[in-house]
Amino acid sequence: NFPGGWRERDPMAGSAEFVEADNAEAIITRIETKSRKIESLLKQFKHVEALKTALEGSPPKTRDERCKSANWIVVHRAIMAIKDIDGMLNALDVEYYDILMKYLYRGLSTGDRPTCDQCLKIHEKLTERAGLGCILRCLTDTINVV
């Protein structure tokens, strides 16, 4: 960590780097744009496409909690719209599994009953599909915190 902001390589995302806090407004703007796209997809009943869109570029490469919270709201909206979990997992590329697992744990940490119920249902199916390694990668990755 360096005073006044820092940059650290993310081993899970190649050369991607964290951005300094003064770029938080630009990140929030991108999240708002993504949110509008997701709402449009959900209105068209394209739930899996909405989830993929929500997970793309997640987590935001910043430690700014406003950005993480804004992105969580977008991902949460997409997660809660999923009805056919098996169908969603069949359509979701495997590279999304680890980040989805991170957001499931974020959802469980809210304590909100409907959110926890949905996250547990998806967690069970995702663990069957992706294995315990997905859980371990999620819990041990302290760089890409959602």
Automatic annotation (TrEMBL):
The keyword Cytoplasm applies. It comes from the Eukaryota. One of its GO terms (biological process) is Arp2/3 complex-mediated actin nucleation. It is found in: Cell projection; Cytoplasm, Cytoskeleton. Pfam families: P16-Arc. Keywords: Cell projection, Cytoplasm, Cytoskeleton. One of its GO terms (cellular component) is Arp2/3 protein complex. Belongs to the ARPC5 family. Functions as component of the Arp2/3 complex which is involved in regulation of actin polymerization and together with an activating nucleation-promoting factor (NPF) mediates the formation of branched actin networks. Arp2/3 complex plays a critical role in the control of cell morphogenesis via the modulation of cell polarity development. Functions as a component of the Arp2/3 complex which is involved in regulation of actin polymerization and together with an activating nucleation-promoting factor (NPF) mediates the formation of branched actin networks. Arp2/3 complex plays a critical role in the control of cell morphogenesis via the modulation of cell polarity development. Component of the Arp2/3 complex composed of ARP2, ARP3, ARPC1/p41-ARC, ARPC2/p34-ARC, ARPC3/p21-ARC, ARPC4/p20-ARC and ARPC5/p16-ARC. This is Actin-related protein 2/3 complex subunit 5. It comes from Thlaspi arvense.
